[in-house]
Specification:
- The chain is an alpha/beta fold and 323 residues long.
- The protein has 2 domains: 11-171 and 269-307, D-Maltodextrin-Binding Protein, domain 2; 172-267 and 315-319, D-Maltodextrin-Binding Protein, domain 2.
- It contains 9 helices and 20 strands.
- The protein has helices at residues 44-47, 112-123, 136-140, 188-192, 203-212, 224-232, 243-251, 280-292, 295-304; strands spanning 11-16, 51-53, 61-66, 87-92, 102-103, 108-110, 128-133, 149-150, 164-166, 171-172, 175-179, 196-199, 219-221, 238-242, 258-263, 268-269, 272-274, 308-309, 312-313, 318-319.
- The strands form 6 sheets. A 6-stranded mixed beta sheet has the order 2-1-3-7-4-8. It has a 6-stranded mixed beta sheet with strand order 13-12-14-11-15-20, with helices on both faces.
- The radius of gyration is 19 Å and the shape is globular.
- Mean pLDDT is 80; it is low at 1-59 and 68-72.
Amino acid sequence: MVKGSGLSSLRVGIAPLPPSCLSCLSCPKDHSMPRPPSTTAPRAALATGPLWRLPVLGSLLVGVVLFAGCGAPVSSSGNFTPASPHVLTVATFEVPVPGLWTGTAEHPTGGFEYELAVNLAHHLGLDGVRVVIVPFPEILAGHLHGADLAISDVTATTARQAHLQFSAPYLSATPAVLSLPGQRINDLNAARARSWSVQRGTTLSAFVENTIKPKKPTTYATNDKDVIDAVTSGRAEAALLDLPVALGAARTSPGHLVVTGQFTTQDDLSAALDLSSTNLEAVDSAINFLVANGTINNLAGTWLGQSFTGTTAKNIPLIPAIP
C-alpha cells in the first residue's frame, strides 16, 4: 500500500468521551457495544472537540481522544511504557477507511481499528488514544514517528520483520474478492478470467501477479478507495483487498458491493511496533485477551458485519489458491 500526505502542519484535537467504555468487554462495568454513527446524532463528545494548530512538524496529522469513567482496566502481562504519558499513540496511514476508521484523524468517531486502539489503551491502563497519520511505506520501514504502535491493516511478513516487531494477530486478512453482485469466482481459473484492481506495491498486488495471473489487464491504484472505485465504475470486474477492508467497503455500500470469497492463505493483521520497543509482551497479552473474551468478534460484527472465530472469518466462501 502507498499513501502520501501533503499536510503541512501537525494538528491536535482533544475531545473527552462520555463516561463509558467504548465497547471494551475487558471493562468490569456493563457498557453497551458501540454502533456506527447514525444520521441522528454522532457521539457528541467526539463531534465538538476544539482544534489547535501547532508549529510545522513534517507531514503528520495527529488527533487525541481522551476517555474517562471506564473503571479499572484488566491487568496484562508485561510492562507498557507509552511514548506520551497516559496516552496510546497509534500510527495509521489513512483516515477514514471503510469499516476500519471513521471520522478524521483529529476526531475519530469509530471503526474496527479505532475501537481496537481504544480497547488496547483501556486494557493497558491508559487514559486516551492519539492518532498519527504516517505514510504506509514509512510504517513498513519502521518509522512510526513517535507512535507506540501502528494499527493500519498491516500483515506480518518475513521481509517486514527486518524493520518491525509484530504482535499476536487480531484478525484474518486473507486476500478477499470485492465485486458487484453476480460475479461468481469460486476457483483460480474463474479468477484468471476476470479483470482486477489492486493497490500497487503491496502483498496483494504480488498475489494478483504471481498467483492469480489474470488474462485481462490489471488496474493498479495507490489507495483502497481507488481500488474500490475501479469496480464501481466498471473498469475492473473484481478488486483484491485485505478481508477487513473488503468487508468494510461492502458494509458501507449495501447491495452495491459484495465480498464473494477469500483466497486460502494464512495472512493475519497484527499491530506493528518499532524494533527498539520493549512493549511487545504487554501488547501481545492485551490483544490475546481481546480475542479470547470476544471483544474482537463483537467489533468485527459491529463494524465489518462479519463474525470471526478467533481471528478467522465465518461464512465467507474459500477459494483455493491453486488451479
